Amino acid sequence: MNAPAKSCGDELLTVRQLRVAFAQGRALLPAVDGIDLRLAAGETLALLGESGCGKSATALALLRLLPAAGRIVAGEVRFGGRDLLRLPESEMRAVRGGGMAMIFQEPATSLNPVLTVGRQMAEVLARHRSLGGTAAQATALDLLSAVGIADARRRLGEYPFQLSGGMKQRVMIAMALAGDPRLLVADEPTTALDVTIQAQILDLLRRLQVERAMGMLLITHDLGVVAQMATRIGVMYAGEIVEEAPRASFFATPRHPYTQKLFAALPGLARRGGQLQTIPGQVPSLSAMPAGCRFAARCEHAWDRCRQQSPQWRQVALDHRVRCHLEDGRLVAGGNAGGPAADGVPVAAAAAAPTLLAVDDLRVHFAIRRGVLQRTVGHVRAVDGVSLALARGRTLALVGESGCGKTTVGKAILQLLPASGGSVCLLGEQLGGGRQRAQRALRRHMQMIFQDPFASLNPRLSVGEIIAEGIRAQGGGGRATNEAAIAAVLQQVGLPAEAAIRYPHEFSGGQRQRIAIARALAVQPELVICDEPTSALDVSVQAQILNLLATLQRELGLAYLFITHNFAVVDHLAHEVAVMYLGRIVEHGGVDEVLRSPQHPYTRALLSAVPSPRLAAASEPIRLPGEIPSPAAPPTGCHFHPRCRQAGESCRQAYPPPSQLSATHVVRCHLYPSTVDADRGGVACDRAET
Amino acid sequence: MPFLPVILWSDVLIWLLLLAALASGWLSAGNPLWRSAWQRVGRSRAGMASATLLLAFAIVGLLDSLHYRPRLAADGGQRTAGQPAVYAVEVLSLLDALLTPLRTRNEKTYSEPLATRAHAKETIEVRGSDGRLQQVRDHPRLRHGGAHLGADEGRRDADVAGRVLQALGLALLAWAAVVLAVCGGVVRARGCGWRLAWRRVWRSEGEFAWNAILATLAALSLLAMPVALLAGDYHVFGTDKVGQDVLYQVLKSVRTALVIGLVTTLVMLPLSVLLGVLAGYFRGWVDDLIQYLYTTLSSIPGVLLIAAAVLMMQVLIDTHPQWFATAAERADLRLLALCFILGVTSWTGLCRLLRGETLKLRELEYIQAAQAFGVSSLRIIGRHILPNLMHIVIIALVMDFSSLVLAEAVLSYVGIGVDPTMISFGTMINNARLELAREPLVWWSLAAAFLFMFSLVLAANLFADAVRDAFDPRLAGSP
Amino acid sequence: MLAYVVRRLLYALPILIGVNLITFALFFVVNTPDDMARMQLGVKRVTPEAITRWKAERGYDRPLFVNDEASGVAVFSETIFFSKSIRMFVGDFGRAEDGRDIAREIVARMGPSLAIALPTFVLGLLVSVTFALLLTFFRATYLDFWGVVLCVAMMSISGLFYIIGGQYLISKLWKLVPISGYGGGLDAWKFVILPVVIGVVSGIGSSTRWYRTIFIEEIARDYVRTARAKGLSEAAVLFRHVLRNALIPILTGVVVVIPLLFMGSLLTESFFGIPGLGSYTIDAINAQDFAVVRAMVFIGSLLYIVGLILTDLSYTLVDPRIRFD
After folding, report:
1. A51, A308 in Cβ contact below 8 A?
2. Closest CA to C166 of C188, C190, C120, C197
3. Residue A518 lies in a domain
4. ipTM
5. Minimal-distance CA residue of chain A relative to C246
6. The domain C102-318: what is its CATH number?
7. Which of A52, A121, A182, A520 would be A447's cystine partner, CB 3.0–4.6 Å?
8. How far apart are CA C159 and CA C156, in angstroms?
9. Hey, are the CB atoms on A104 and C244 less than 8 Å from each other?
């Protein structure tokens, strides 16, 4: 052990050589392989890593809450002077929720659906603080107020399904605090939440930690969250911690090649249009861990020693340790610079390009049925009058939080959902209605790439069959030409031609997304609707896919309608941005106009809420109160006014008309003078290219 | 020809089912997902042990599904060339031919297992020492049971013990031969030594639960061989009221159970798959209609619907005797009609399940991707939905089998099951039940039916569990 | 929520009509009343006059749907469909072969059926849920493994054997209670106890296994992990969290059969000579008493539909998501 002994006194948690494995059949597959952690009161240690690196298993092992197949093989977890791994189960229960509490990733499933919030909180109070009756009720009220829940008394009697996602996570936090824990383990506490809600929750956690001088172990994959929250960071890779550093040192000079790559793979303004750095290959699987450094196979600096010998810890700065064989001089400093930014940004042919897709006043309403006869009593206005236009070779990003209707727009354009009003024109032809045969032929020109690479490929078909499906549906050629075409698209997306005879389950998430792209490309579309294509992927894999999409756009002149909530990705590859709120576009303009000088208060708040993976946090963050209202009953007037600080009387009265700020920049807000002109037919079919 | 082949409808269906099973097995070998699922079944020890037992039952059933009418020997053996052959009215199966001694050696009435004398006392005439005929009340000697012993009935125990020992020896030999063959196969396939092959087979270090199969085979042969050797001269399970051998009856019952368990699913499957998928995929009024249909049908308690339908079928059969050439045909058609009725009354559960799953599937992104290509609905159902429902169908099939076998017994007992002349577990139990009141107790018929039925249903249940564990995507990942 | 209940009630009506149509088709369209008469009378006594008389006695001599000879409403009411099917909705089931009024018989026989079925149901539910909870508590141990094996073995035994074996052991060998029969009053328990015990035992296997599956599925959920993270004991997790949630799927299967308890069990009642609806049905089947079978089909469906509605109502008790929707 090379951890200095001096700090043992004030340390809250010390983990030594913790090993966790998962039983599979008769084999034990190691998931966490000898990690050391220490955490002092009032400190936040962030455990950073990509999926499958063992960070969640570590967190669960601390509380001895591993699932049935999980085993703690060895190690020591010292907490409050005792080794938790050697406590009898009954004493361990006093630690869980008492000394050490945990909040989980999915607030939607982590609360018991059939018990009221009050009862679920009362359990903790009764268990750890022996409170009952009115005392418990009062304490629960205090806790709910402390986590920022308004009208706490009413909420106590409610069930989880009556709360919004953000509120559920607040209740989870309140429940965790109910036992007065000294250490809070937060496992991806904001991953399932929208950015504005994430910002609220992170603020709350930070405030509570200071107030209660708790230690916090934060498990996350998001460098932005780390930058906001952590005092120290441990980077995990394949079951090991490879780098440990205080926040300042970590963000200034990340030392491990893996950490550097993580930074370099982040999309953002600096690397707009250029190639992102990627990490080749994949995380080694649990069953086949390499002998030497686990990152060696994917490291461009790796040398013989890396492959044979597992590196030891080395101190590189004050409290900054790294497990890497590279000599100090060879350790590349400061990976924050990023890759080559040049390489033909496909900005070309901006405004002059002919219109490929024209959407005018698109509406998608879903009926709400109630009552004895299931009569329609109202409509969920998922999409409520969206107009946009997209030219060949351009990328339009449709940005918004969950529930704003952005995915519905994409599906309605593809005619996967029936539109309730408005028109969609592709290549000058109206979609929807008309003859079936013509409609089917039009489908060839547009394709979709979906969010979940695991649900978007039929597991029962081979990759070749999956790709051939579109060609066949479009009346493609014979078997031989099809096979050649499949091999060609596979090569285009960077997969070997042999992949055609294999099945989806043999591929990783990133590779599956490549297959999905190949399937879309196989019918040679001009427009590809990308529905959050990278949100289910790790950062390094996301970079690969973004690079691929950029290359394809350059080579094939594709137009992308890019549906996302991730501003970094928008900044990286979009030409234009449209921001949606409750079924309507509130701001629309060039990427620099919208991201650099946002005008709508919502856009500003949204941008301000995105945690930046950098240290500089200069400007005062704008925090939005509340959450997105239901699209079934949007607020009168401007939909955004209940959450807007600048809202005035007119905002409550009428929905704002568009204000043209520049040739391309339009915002719908009463703060700006209306410039509405009668020419709404600007995107009508007949004017589009034929 | 010495016999006239008779093709019963249930025979056709049984063999078609076998063909379909082989074909789908061959097809699923091509798809890695199916293959790995079946390999998981192959790794399950309980699954393979029960599969072995089921295979033994299936062989009995299949042998019993090849029917013919034997040619009657012409009078006095003088047959002229021009005389048309005369065939017996009685329809026999290959199994009947193999079991001829069991089938023909009927006693007068009850006899205990392995007995040489009847179960009940009768007044018999015995020639006394003085040469006069005396009337004595005693258990009369059986006509066939232990007849080879002659007057030396005391030798029975020794004879039985000798035969059992001999049989056990034979069984071990046969089993050893099978083990050798399996090991030999492994040696050839893997190119490893015999010792390693033995270890792979016996410790199941390979991918296949050979040890479970071999253990089951050992147990099976150790039990079956003595029965086989004894059955030639004794009634191993005794005889029933009319003197028929009980062993023969239980063996014949196997086919009835298999037909009920398998053919029913053949009726149920197309209904539930078609309607379930249509309802889930097209929704709207199609869904409403199909939901109404199955809710209505399932509202009628199963037994009552079956009772009503069977009653009506009985009326139909009884009022149209001209439809059937032989009694066997009538019994067979009644069996099939029962399968049909069971199928029609039991498709609703699977249909509901498939509808729900289709509703979930159609929202999946790969279906939407296909729709974005303009792929037709029929093709989407065929290529994307059906293959992803197959695991549910397979699980439902194997799960239903055992409950159908159990249902047959109950229905036959109630009197709405198979034809009373057809041998089945239900009719056996029904006949034997009344004898429990007798003193001394007649237990063997019931015990034999219990033994065979229990092992069949247990094997089916265990196999169903193994299949479910292997095919259910939620369970397949877990160890 | 009221709309929800009203909607479920309204939905039951077309189903009942559908059931009625199916039964009618089964009894009068598949075979003509002549066929039934021939079957009932037996081969020897079949003469055209006998058939006509048989039909007239039972009211089967009218036309199926439309009576051309009658006038006014009678065009439709003087038909088999009206008198045999529509009249069932008002509780008129006609007369059995022995001349007794079926409706009165049904009312009289419900009591004995319920006396057996209700205790069997309640005890069976309690015992099975207890065993299932026990197995879940000891999941992944040998106790659990052998418990499941025992369940599978028990569910592989035909219900007939449970009854035959139970009757033989308890009544005949040990002579604890009478083998069959039924009596009112204080002595009733003597006749009730054996069928109830046998009914409970024969159902344990499959229901325990089913409940265990539900519990095991529920225990893998996220909220259970949350409950453990609170420091609750395994028993508290099981009873306070898992059981409450598992009630929802359990209710789906259980509540629907409660009204059917009135129907009794065919097997148990006939084996034990209980004068309930189950044995009434069996006797009717054996005597080929079509009117009784038809009435029982209708009653059974009616009770099943009541069960469906009760199930929907019970959801509102255990699932707040429905209660507040």
Report:
1. no
2. C197
3. no
4. 0.86
5. A114
6. 1.10.3720.10
7. A520
8. 9
9. no
